[in-house]
Amino acid sequence: MGCRDVHAATVLAFLSGTASVAGLLAAVLLPNWRQMRLYTYNKNERNVTVYTGLWIKCARFDGSRDCVIYDPQWYTAVDQLDLRVLQFALPLSMFTAVSALFLCMIGMCNTAFVSSVPNVKLAKCLVNSAGCHLVAGLLFLLACAICLTPSIWVIFYNNYLNRKYEPIFSFDISVFIAIASAGGLFFTSIMLFLWYCACKSLPSPFWQPLYSHAPSMHSYASQPYSARSRLSAVEIDIPVVTHSS
């Protein structure tokens, strides 16, 4: 597809970014970042598993889906450093990714709806599709780094807790959701960078809208020969010297 059309790569990047943001939202809300399994030697009692999230905590007996203890105020008393960092990192990553989606949408709207020849007065105030997609790709890459780093740290911090206390801690499904969402954000940035590298040689400047013809075709036109001939009133004869052997 042409670079001046809504390209399949940009549409795929937008869909991938939207799915990644949805995955981050699920990872933020689900209480499945860490499990703490408590064993009992009393045969009349059942083992308890505590499911820890970023905002809530839920304790369940084995074989039951009902929360015996449900703490909706857990976010105010988080005592685990990795989860406390994630409380700030994941919303920041979501905000960055949503901003990138907004820029990507502006770029596609510029491509689809802006006229082929830009308005000269507005040319300095508009951002072209290539500029929007480049900045959106950088924001997606930043959101990936903000999300991925603390999510991987949870795995190592879980091993630290098992060595410090007892081997009763294990990371849960939200860790994998966050890492997969970070991978989706990275894939989205790669798609936008590929589009930009393929279309950056266009004649349009970085901060002006794309248009269908080169600027020189609109700005310069050759004058007829009769008009040019009147400009020269003095003829200059240049002698040519030849050497004979």
From TrEMBL:
It is a multi-pass membrane protein. The keyword Transmembrane applies. It comes from the Eukaryota. GO terms for cellular component: bicellular tight junction; plasma membrane. Keywords: Cell junction, Membrane, Tight junction, Transmembrane, Transmembrane helix. The chain crosses the membrane at residues 6-30, 88-114, 134-156, 168-196. Coiled coil: none annotated. It is found in: Cell junction, Tight junction; Membrane. Its main location: other. PANTHER family: CLAUDIN-12. Belongs to the claudin family. This is CLD12 protein. It comes from Malurus elegans (Red-winged fairywren).
